[in-house]
Amino acid sequence: MIRISVERHNHYICGFKVTEHGKNEVCAAVSLFTINTVNSIETLTDSRCAYDYDPDGGFLEFNLLEYNEHANLLLNAMLLGLRDVERNYGNEIFLEEFERSLNDD
Fold first, then answer.
1. Alpha-carbon distance 25 to 39, whole Å?
2. Taking the mean position of all CA atoms in its chain, how far away is CA 7?
3. How many structural domains are present in the chain?
4. How many CB atoms lie within 10 A of CB 90?
5. Is there a domain that residue 104 lies in?
6. 18, 52, 77, 82: which could join 60 in a potential S-S bond, CB 3.0 to 4.6 Å?
7. Hey, what's the torsion of the CAs at 24, 74, 39, 81, to 10 degrees?
8. pLDDT confidence of 102, banded at 50, 70, 90?
């Protein structure tokens, strides 16, 4: 099962983590949404970000280092696509969202 954690701060997406493998079509969809989002943020925005990944798959962690309206729009578009994948393959994907509190800084 693919696990995706989306982190918010003040209701804005500030990062996400993808772990584990799943069925090929689900992995492909998740990879498409997440990797395209990272590449788009790097290429199309002035956002500072950090990420780590396993080139063999099964792990991607992304953090936005400062708020950027354009990056947040791209992250919300990614989340919209991931929710569709979850709706269609709910037994293959676990998607969670959480709000980071000020105490977590």
1. 21
2. 9
3. 1
4. 10
5. no
6. 18
7. 10
8. low
User: What are the residues whose beta carbons fall under 8 Å from the beta carbon of 41, sequence distance 6 or more?
Assistant: 47, 49, 64, 71, 74, 75
Nearest Cα to Cα of residue 47 among 27, 72, 30: 72
Domain containing residue 61: CATH number:
3.30.70.1490
Structural domain span for residue 6: 2-99
pTM of the model: 0.91
Q: How far apart are CA 91 and CA 75, in angstroms?
A: 23
Give the residue among 2, 76, 92, 84 at the shortest CA–CA distance from 37.
76
Backbone angles phi, psi at 30, to 5 degrees: -65, -45
**How do residues 2-38 score in pLDDT, each as one tens digit?**
999 999 998 899 999 999 887 889 999 999 999 999 9
Judge contact between 30 and 82, C-beta under 8 A: yes
| Rounded Cα distance, 13 and 6, in Å | 7
